[in-house]
Amino acid sequence: MKLTLSNQLNNAFTIFLSLLVEAMPFLLLGVLLSGLLLLFIDERKLIAAMPRNPILGAFVGSCVGFLFPVCECGNVPVARRILMQGAPLPVAVSFLLAAPTINPIVIWSTWVAFRDQPEIVVLRVVFSLAIATIIGCVFSVQKDLRPILQTAVARSVPQPVAVDKAPIKDQTLALLESGSFLLGGTGKPIRMDNTVLQASLAASTAKKPLSYRLSLLLENTVQELRELGGVLILGSAIAATVQVIVPREAILSLGMSPVTSILAMMLLAGLVSICSTVDSFFALSFASTFTSGSLLAFLVFGPMIDLKGIGLMLSIFRPRAVIFLFALAAQLTFLLTLFINLYVS
Amino acid sequence: MSAKSSGINFKDRRNRQVPPDWALPLLDVVAITAWGVLLLKYWLAGSLNLLIHPNYFWLVVVTAVLLVIVGVLKGMQLFWTIRQRSFVSGRSRRVNQPVSPVQHITLFPPGWSGTLLLATAILGLLITPKVFNSQTALQRGVSESVSITRSQPQAFRSSKKPEERSLIDWVRILNVYPEPDTYTGQKVKVQGFVVHPPEMSAQYLLLSRFVITCCAADVYPVGLPVKLTQDSKAYPPDTWLEVEGKMITETVQSKRQLTIDATSLKKIPEPKNPYNY
Questions:
Q1: Is pLDDT at A16 greater than 90 in this prediction?
Q2: Per the CB < 8 Å rule, is B175 touching A1?
Q3: Is B141 within 8 Å of A80 when comparing Cβ atoms?
Q4: Percent helix, strand, coil in chain A (nearest 5)?
Q5: Residue B113: in which H helix or E strand, if any?
Q6: Is the CB of residue B75 less than 8 Å away from at least one CB of chain A?
Q7: Is B15 on the interface with A (CB under 8 A)?
Q8: Among A4, A199, A233, whose Cβ lies nearest the Cβ of B117?
Q9: Residue A93: which of A35, A157, A138, A34 has the closest Cα?
Q10: How many Å lie between the alpha carbon of B162 and the closest alpha carbon of chain A?
Q11: In this structure, what are the phi and psi dihedrals at residue B140, rounded to the nearest 5 degrees?
């Protein structure tokens, strides 16, 4: 029996569409929540309340996800914006990593799926919190954000005090860039482009009339839907193609051993790019063949890093920062879940 | 003022043949509305169950309605802006979009994202998603399927009479009590489609169902071997059958397996919802 090409194409298309149909509600929910947060909550107050201590900040950032029930499709716009509004980097990074897991909807769906193995639910939360906090702390060492952020995001981040130490090359570049500048009393040009205007505008919209805020919400929703939707489509297309080309058995046969099962499940998590709100059901279908550690690896690592998520993260961070995040998250997940496999279960 | 503040792009754009400035916002409107329409179409045409688990239907429907609302609102806003502009001045070429509060991601050049969204929606409207077939079942490893199911069946009811159990019920029960001899002699009546694993002898076929846990990306096949009185070629792959018979234990594919000893095999039309939950 041969696998016909048309059949393969058809399967890929069906998987592609099903990923999109399933992710679209959560994407919209994320975009809407992020817009509401933008227009109806004074983020500056929220951000000002964030602890400046890196460890505490990273931990609080991890828990902020509890306020925003969004999965990994939805947390990126929120993370990007709180960063642009001046949230400390550890807060934003830990939020980015933990929010898809540490939120009521995801915990609830994991509970539904693994009702008989509550340790999976608890450990998923604990490990995600731990990894996000650790990585947040690691990122707190980076004081100058520009080398790791995408230019558009970096521009609107309020410049850190350490701007004088920035390489001269960067400054000349900034001077040669187009746009309007204000010459402040310090003699340093302050960029006055759309981004900054919009960011300050956003911060002051809380005082604007409701109709104005609503029209901004609409505009914001359209723009984020369009951009994140485009990325989602690319990610789902890749995930669907890989799923069809690589037989699932090949991934599964990578092993039942404590080590390779974890690696296999992390690989699967990265490839399938399934939304964190529903991924526990997916993991459940492997529950009898895979070690608990590897299931945890899937549930912890998947929401942080996957093909789709990498695309979205590239909208905030430059590639090398994403690679760094990826490597750290992968290693920490691997070590923690290996510990479970070897010493607990 | 407008030429200066909009940066260098404006100058470039003036020299080239550019689409009118309402083209990109219009693309967004069309793309977002098209997605709403696509999701509504899946729901109304009943093909949503080929893509996702019924638990998430309401989410999709709400999203579809919201997307259409967003599209229509944005379209109205655009329409009014254009009309206002043509009243105020025929010379001004810029549509005054409300200033977006955030600088948006620029992974794609302008217009690409919208085009991608629209193109996918159009493809989705044109191509109907198809049910996975036996080839997919083989590729996804139906032979291993019995072990790859939920470890803790949620709908496990031992009180169900044997002949009322579905194929999935059988597989789930097998996971709890794997010894095939437990079930010898019990009556079976199950529905599924035919799969011919290449290594199975012609006396058997595999009756399969796909199980969906959340969306088509995680669909996995389960199946039970059926012992036939005639050659399995009489039942080509993907035929839907209702099989009645008794449970026996056979060594199929060099494994002791619970097998259906078929007394009657009836061809049935493909069920409206081919997946199981």
A1: no
A2: no
A3: no
A4: 75, 0, 25
A5: helix B112-126
A6: no
A7: no
A8: A233
A9: A138
A10: 24
A11: -85, 5
Read off the tokens for B138: 């083989």
**DSSP per-residue string spanning B204-229:** EEEEEEEE-SSBGGG-EEEEEEEE-S
B47, B122, B132, B215: best to mutate for the A interface, most A CBs within 10 A: B215
Nearest to A240 by CA among A266, A273, A284: A273
Rounded to 10 deg, the angle between the B23-44 and A210-245 helix axes is 60
Taking a contact as any Cβ pair under 8 Å apart, which residues of chain B between 170 and 209 contact chain A?
175, 196, 198
pLDDT at A107 over 50: yes
Q: Which chain A residues contact residue B175 at CB under 8 A?
A: 288
How many C-beta atoms lie closer than 10 Å to residue B146's C-beta? 21
DSSP state of A207: G
Q: Quick one: B167 exposed, middle or buried, by C-beta within 10 A (0-12, 13-18, 19+)?
A: buried
- Given this model, what pLDDT does residue A339 score? 93
- The first and second tokens of residue A226, run together, are 């369009």
**Cα atoms in the Cβ-side hemisphere of radius 13 Å centred on A91:** 22
Q: Find, in chain A, the residue whose alpha carbon is nearest to that of B133.
A: A7
CB within 8 Å of chain A, chain B residues 241-270: none
Tell me whether residues B132 and A11 touch, CB distance under 8 A.
yes
Bridge partners (DSSP) listed for residue B226: B205, B260
- For A127-172, what is each residue's pLDDT tens digit? 999 999 999 999 888 777 777 888 777 777 665 544 443 343 444 4
Domains of chain B: 2-126 (no CATH), 134-276 (2.40.50.200)
How many C-beta neighbours within 10 Å does residue B43 have? 17
* pLDDT value of position B67: 96
pLDDT at position B8 over 80: no
Q: How far is CA B24 from CA A24, A277, B29, in A?
A: 22, 33, 9
B117, B150, B152 member nearest A226 (Cβ): B117
DSSP one-letter code for B47:
-
Mean pLDDT computed over every residue of chain A:
76
Indicate whether B142 pLDDT > 70. Answer: no
Q: What is the ipTM of this complex?
A: 0.80
Residue B151 pLDDT exceeds 60:
no
Task: Please check the confidence at residue A179 and state whether its pLDDT lies above 70.
Answer: no
Does residue B153 sit at the A interface (CB-CB below 8 Å)? no
Mean pLDDT confidence for B209-217: 77
Residues, chain A: 345
Instruction: Kindly give, in sequence order, each residue whose CB lies less than 8 Å from that of residue A84, ignoring residues fewer than 6 positions away.
Output: A153, A156, A157, A195, A199, B102, B103
Chain A, nearest residue to B105 by Cα:
A315
B204-211 and B275-276 as β-strands: parallel, antiparallel, unpaired? parallel
pLDDT of res. A123:
94
